[in-house]
Amino acid sequence: MGAITPIGNDVDTYWSNLLAGVPGGGPITTFDTTGHDVKIAAEVKGFDPSLTMDRKMVRRMSRFIHFGVAASAEAVRNSGLDFAAMSPEQRDRAAVVVNTGGGGMEQVINGADTIRDKGPGQVSPFAIPALSGSMAAAMVSMQYGITGPVITQVAACASGVIAYQDAFRLIASGESDVVLAGGSEAPLLAMAFAALGNMTALSKRNDDPEGASRPFDRTRDGFVFGEGAGILVVESAQHALDRGATILAEIAGAALTADAYHISAPEPTGRGATMAMTKALRQAGLAPNEVDYIVAHGTSTPLNDVTETRAIKAAFGDFAYRLPISSPKSMIGHTLGAAGALSAIAAVGTIRDGWIAPTINYHEPDPDCDLDYVPNMKRQATVDVAMINGFGFGGQNAVAIFKRFEA
Question: Does the annotation count 369 as an active-site position?
């Protein structure tokens, strides 16, 4: 696994801070917030893209690409894979899936500013590849000479979870043996804050950035915008066993559904999200009471959290009340296309280590959100099966299930 997050720029730091309940929110430093209602975000701190990319390419590419390449480098290093030692035929059977919600949006804004201030002749010729949502996946494939499928799905906040459905399908179909799968996002732009602020989607707790993201709490008032990337190396079981890999977990199933309801609001009954959870369970061959933990979408918005709660109750029945649920977004904010990948790392970490990360900033119970959200403190537990949820604008619902691997 590999991670770039607001609470750590490697997977071990991210995971330890997640368990410790370290908040990642703070004042925005990436642009002048004068006139903005929202002045807080969960920014990645102290990140140096030149550690994993050529400096010339760093200047040419967008921040979400920097994140995706760095998280992939850590994941590959931790996996023990050596793509350079592979034959061309073996690299043909490797794939990359790095999803995103927005890609390199800053290139459009910077390009428009350049045209206005300096003229069209001064716009970078690299602006188009740098803004392309597919370029993080393409850059990762070039880093390792991966010549199999290179995929990018743009599905708003569900994007990161969908990466594991695609990895599952590529391997189950026999097309690929290895998939670098996850998501990357760097959306902290003045325009995005203005639009989401005007939509009332963002928390306006500017005087309390560390406490602003409070999923499932009665006083939640919106999400904290975040950035980052997460990548997992996914392999066929046989490929991993043959090379003596340390296997952390397996993907047991995944599903994708749609609300077909609204451009931004979830369908109030949670039917589409319920169906995604139910279909993922069916594909995994699991009963609802065999799930030990859910990494919730849990955005800290009034609509999402109550709708997700309803959906979990519908999918799990009375067992929902005995099921631990927590939201990493309480610490890392909402990283959009990277959120599902960072949730996957939380799920795998829990299976491996036997600790469930908390939902921090949970102080006032909401009668409409009445499940076990693991409030404020990590919890020791044996977790053999963990589900991750990702629900995006436009009603896209993605669910993946990870379980303990037994050879």
Answer: no
> Which one is catalytic: 66, 262, 334, 363?
334
Scan for tokens 């996002």, then name that residue: 185
What does the pLDDT look like over 341-400, one tens digit per residue? 999 999 999 999 999 999 999 999 999 999 999 999 999 999 999 999 999 999 999 999
Query: Of residues 36, 262, 297, 363, which has the active-site annotation?
Result: 297
Is 66 a catalytic site residue?
no
Least confident among 108-117, 214-223, 369-378, 396-405: 108-117
Cα(311)–Cα(199) distance, rounded to whole angstroms? 24
What is the rounded end-to-end Cα distance, in angstroms, of the chain?
A: 20
28 sits in the region (left: phi over 0; alpha: psi -120 to 50; else beta) called beta
Domains and CATH numbers, the chain: 2-403 (3.40.47.10)
Q: Rounded CA gap, 407 and 405, in Å?
A: 6
Alpha carbons 283 and 363: distance in angstroms, whole number? 37
